[in-house]
Amino acid sequence: MNPVDLFSIATGSSEPIYRQLVEQVRRFVAGGQLRAGEELPSVRELAQALAVNPMTVSKAFGLLEADGLLERRRGLAMVVAPQHRRAQPTAERVELLRPTLERAALEARQLELPAAQALALFKTLLRDAEDDAP
Amino acid sequence: MTAHAGWQRVLLAPLQQRRNQGSRWFWPALVVAALLVLAGAALLPRVPLAWAALTLLATLALGLWIALVSSLIVQNEPHAARLVPGQVRALRRVLLVAGLAFLAVAGIVGAAFGHALPTLGATLLALLVVAWIVRMPALGMLGWIVPMLVSRASKSPAFEAMAGAASNAVLARPGWVAAGATAALLAAVAWSLPRLLQSGDARHQRSYRARTRLRVFVRHGRVDQTRWATTGRLGCVLRELSTWPYQRVLARISARRSGDVLGRSLVGLGPVFHWSGQLGSALVFGAIGLLLLSVVWGVGLPGAHLGGASGAVWPLSLGLMTFVVNLSVAARTALYHSRREQALLMLLPGMPRAAALNRPLAVRLLIQFVVTWALGLLACAALVPFQARQFGWLVTLACVGLPWGALLWRDWSRLPPPSPMTAAAPVVGVMLLAACAVGLQLVFDWPVWTFALGFVWLTLALLAWRWRGVAAAPSAFPVGRRS
Amino acid sequence: MNTVTTTPSSAGVALHATPPDPAPSVTASGLCVGHGTQTVIDGLDWALLPGQVVGLLGRNGAGKTTLLESLLGLREPTAGTVRLFDQPVATLDDALRARIGYVPQQSDLFEWLTPAQMLGYFKSFYPRWNEAKVEGLLSKWDIARDKRIAELSGGQQQRLAIVRALAHEPDLLVLDEPVASLDPAGRRDFLRELVDQVLNRGTTVVFSTHILSDLERVAFNVAFLSAGRIAVQAPLDELLETTRRLIGPAAEVQALVQAQRMRVIGRTALDAGRLQVLARVADATTPAPQRTAAVHVEPVTLEDLFMGLTQ
Hints:
heterotrimer, A: 134 residues, mainly alpha, Arc Repressor Mutant, subunit A, 2 domains, two-stranded antiparallel sheet, 5 helices, globular, B: 483 residues
């Protein structure tokens, strides 16, 4: 699949676009859709596809490079850094889930659900996701 | 109750429109004009006061009828006609009842003078004809051409024979003729009513759109450029012909990059403003007008008889005066309607600002005005063989329009949007000045040329007074940005 | 927001090639502009740096068009000054005027001309004119060269206006609601092309709009026009990350704001003595406050900022 099609952004959210891109790249790398050494689309290409300012894309890529997730090659597009260069302890990966869980927690509070029920639902969903994924 | 309420609102509409849109000087001006006419009639010994008053009344009634009919036609909007229940019916009823009221008044007046029936018939005919001219202004052109054709044809013997036979027939059986004429008029009324105030079908929509374009053109001087194409091949051809000089000038200045920036930027204001566009229109439409006039009136053809050259002085002079005044009005509206283009032009490198812009612009406007004035005068002089005295009157009355050119010089950054008064006020002013000149001449019998010189001197004085103001004002472009 | 990675956004700044402390390309100080007796712009101060892409946001009738016209010298201010490239705007010299491009709100200008004629006419005034770019854009956007502008569609007219503004390669581009009459696909295309064309050259771009989604994609900085002044101008990302919406009883909200040393940028009184406040933390590295018992703390979207900062 063309890596450009992986990305999508949502306007009107409280998350800046560059942050959405950063989080997406992190998730794809952690989830395996972007493998080590795979080439990312160029800044210009991605900006064209998403209809955003190229400076936003380059800011996102810059942050990812500073984090060690991406590697810059001279004269070529950026690539995903090899496995051993990336520090991906579980603690950090769990933190990636925080935004989604925060939103879920807020909704649960608004619906006035007891924590036990919400957690039970989450466990069920996790089990279903495990069953679906190979 | 509902019928009453509908009528009240329909009749209120023209009053509200006048209050909202009309100038606040309308009623005072009307009263003053009426008083002047009466005073003039009282002073001139040859004119009986009764006739003057009657004519005044008839003119006022005609004006009222025109205002009512045009307001009703404006209210007759296609969507409302289709969707608002009973609206078209209310409009038609108001028109009928108002017409009957006018007829009643005319009948009473006619009976007082002893000619009730002919007065009634003539009034009905006049009401019908005027209503149709308001509905389709193009018919107004016919109202100009037909009398001219008739007056030409009346010189021929065949016409005299026909006229003799017709009058004999009328005198032989007056009753039949009267009944026939009445029946014809009533049939005409019945046929006209649904066509004057239509009921929302496709034809209505087309005619409404055409009338809106005309109204926008007349009120604001703005030509809807997209609609030229819908006037068909003829419209396109005319447009191409009349803008040909402008296109040539534009191509020439686009090709070279040097030269007076202000002059080149004025080309960007469009053919309506630029002299090349005006030249093109004048040539094309002047040729058409000349063709019409020569066919109808024999103007410019050898052996033409116009009822004597003296007969032509007054209408030609009138035409020339209004033409001259319209020049200044047209320049002003053209400047106003191109103000957004002017914003872009002000950002061009080399474009002058403030006094460096205002002074050359003022000079150009004045030159354009004077040259067009002179050409118009020459055209009139060339068309008709005049004697010296009549020629003197022609020149003098043409000079009446000159001071309005001086009024072109103003603080353009404060130019207000054009309104109907913009065009009407100068015409009224010119008429008043001309009337003063004619009156003074009749009373004191000064030589005609003194008046011409007087108007020229007035123009020069106005120009000198306004020159300082023009130089001190902020940049003319974009016009109308301050208020 | 709730980011844990604390890489400051300033790491991204090094990627935008702005030289240290450049001279501003547009400066307005104490600008007051009136419309008749009404004051539309009231003591406005603004500075734009070269290469910035700024979106000007404001309600209808807030004076966006008036402000942009005053910046270009098309309208005289009643007080204050505007300087472009460090020259007073009333007396710009020709070289500087050749570096300015303007796309006004109405796109049907010069409607009696064809695009070819109009562009040829403007070309004769400018010393620098990129004919190749003009031809390329006209072909790419499929604008008929020999059809009168009055007969082009609204979208074509607006694209033509941008071609005219870009053709002389300006260093300052001012656009007044450039996409108002385009459909969503047209808007995306237009903005994408605009950004494409100007970013490489470091052009300063100011455009006014009230279509927020376009702004989010394209603008790097946003400025909110409210009550005749620029209420806030900041990079959009920073603004979204550091601003929070606090809702609660007035006293508690004030206390929280004081405690966290936040800067209030917008304030709305709600019913029952409650207060809604838009406040920014001092800098991006400080974590934003979490909700307390009485006060809701929520992240903001651009629409919230628009509603809260303009009135």
